[in-house]
Amino acid sequence: MPKIDIDSAPTGHGTGYPEPFDGPCRARRRWRLGDAVGLDQFGVNLLRLPDGAWSSQRHWHAGEDEFVWVLSGEVVLVEDGGETVLRAGDCAGFKAGVPDGHKIENRSGAEAVLLEVGSRAPQGDSGVYPDIDMIFRPGGFFHRDGTPYPKHDRRT
């Protein structure tokens, strides 16, 4: 397995969320480490969250497991059951199909760095954002009534 040059890995800065849901996630930055070496059964990202940034809107996946490991800094995991502080060395996992929305917020005053790992459902994934009028499925983001949101991608 080749060593990954993180500086050369594909990156994404910002979010594809439609307005007004994109705001808290605009400052996030991901290095797609799994893509850098052609992994196609699971994804691996290095996520940098500046103070005040969120990893995502609170959501859950129907078809993909997720795992996060805090490498540095401090973040707050927000789930249906409440909030949990995660510090360097802590990790959390989210089983596909469990309707417990989650997100990670950086409220620490300093940057936090996480490793994200997620399965890649070959048939595509879908999920729900329980706090807002939005779902996702292959093809993009939709209102809960199925009306599509306009394409809006602030990722660079």
Automatic annotation (TrEMBL):
It comes from the Bacteria. The keyword Coiled coil does not apply. The keyword Transferase does not apply. Keywords: Metal-binding. Residues 46-117 form the Cupin type-2 domain. One of its GO terms (molecular function) is metal ion binding. Pfam families: Cupin_2. Signal peptide: none annotated. Residues 1-21 are annotated as: Disordered. Gene3D superfamilies: Jelly Rolls (2.60.120.10). This is Putative cupin superfamily protein. It comes from Brevundimonas alba.
